[in-house]
Design brief:
- It is a single chain.
- Helices cover 44% and strands 0% of the residues.
- It has 137 residues and is an all-alpha fold.
- The protein starts with a helix and ends in a 54-residue tail after the last helix.
């Protein structure tokens, strides 16, 4: 059986083993999530949980094989393709016509003077008093 949007309609009547073979082909095809096949699958709410179950079975059988990492990546991409939500139709509502309001007049920005400050006169250093330490008696 071929993989295509029209073939997905017949997947509802397949046995578990036949569906497993189809899903295995679909996973190895690595189709993008917005492909017509995934869109056709998402349109059937009864088919999505069956495919999730088959994907879990495929992940379990891939465990321990030499291609385990690759298979798990493909399976996770297939699960993500099942989770893609179809974009909701956008309703266009009429927006009320806004009255023209004159733009507010901006206040003038304060002027910042960038002159260098005048150097302050240096004061001579203060004398530090000498401290004497006495030995305790």
């Amino acid at each position: 059986m071929a993989i295509g949007p029209s073939a997905v309609e017949r997947w509802l009547d397949l046995s578990t083993e036949e569906l497993r073979a189809q899903v295995k082909q679909l996973v190895s095809a690595r189709l993008p999530g917005d492909h017509a096949v995934w869109q056709a699958i998402r349109r059937h709410p009864a088919l999505v949980p069956r495919i999730r179950g088959v994907l879990s079975g495929l992940a379990a059988t891939a465990a321990g094989s030499k291609d385990e990492a690759m298979q798990k990546v493909w399976i996770s991409k297939a699960r993500a393709a099942l989770d893609v939500a179809a974009p909701a139709p956008v309703k266009t509502a009429r927006k009320p016509v806004a009255k023209e309001v004159p733009a507010p007049v901006p206040e003038p920005e304060p002027v910042i003077d960038l002159k260098e400050p005048e150097p302050q006169q240096k004061q001579p250093p203060k004398a530090i008093p000498t401290m004497l330490f006495q030995e305790p008696s």
